[in-house]
Amino acid sequence: MNVPCVRVPRESGEATRQRLADADLLDHEHQITVVEGDLYIPVVAADSVPTEFEVVDFEPPTRETQTTPADILGYEPSYERLGDIVILDEDDTERAREIATAIVDSDLKADTVVNRASKIKGELRVRDWDVLVGDSTETVHREYGTELHLDIDTVYFSPRLATERHRVVEQIREGEHVFDMFAGVGPFAIPAAEAGADVVACDLNEAAVEFLRENAERNDVSDRVTAVHGDVREVADDYEGWAERLIMNLPHSADEFLDTAVRLAGDECIIHLYDIQHEDDPFGPGLAAVRAAADEEYDVEVIEEKIVRSYAPHEYNVCLDVRLTKRP
Question: Name one GO biological process term (predicted).
Fold first, then answer.
């Protein structure tokens, strides 16, 4: 039976599959199929597929039925995957344990199941976890061909931002100077180096920087990544005027570091400023902050205003891409 499929060249398959998965458009009842170098990705709602993709009728094989947690529970639980860790966000402890048991009894591959036990807290942005299954909070997460080793107990990491990270990395040119001001374990920095950039990656969390160095070696880019443990406001003394691209992924307070960003910026520099703002004006406050920090030295041009995801009722996690050009 023919079903709607997105047809893309094989080399674009993973990026396209991730885009469709993020939009809940994948048809999980049929298999993704390769024919003569093209990938056919089954979708559930052809009319909702972004117009940049080609949708065709195709007859893919039916996927073999597997037992899911929903089959066991009788309802669809909410969870995230991070490597071989499954992450729950349940206020009811008994319900969390019920879901964890169903995950173990299903065909879902998971070595560890955890439940969020606190909000993100402190300067290092870590949280507490209830480990329901397994005994390790370490995992290897794979994202667009990059492997990232991390421990969710000691570092912050969000798998939800994979598509956004890929959007930024696709803009990077070989030989570009990229400074990641809040780098974590390297989800921006490592792919940027894989794209050919020279990267300086800074973080206040010493454990994250150790993972970052390991991940640079794991992905064969340690010669292009300089990992620095410390406060970026102090680290900037050694890199004034160096950066051609700045990544500022600290949504609640990145604007407080814009003076440092301006110190780091070269004659021309693109800033990716992540922010949390109300839906009524998601980009205005960030742009005003950039202009306040940079206007004396730079012309400021907006390249793109990107809503990354919903964060809370009436609030968005956004990214403002701006170009700074130094005045003569």
Answer: tRNA N1-guanine methylation
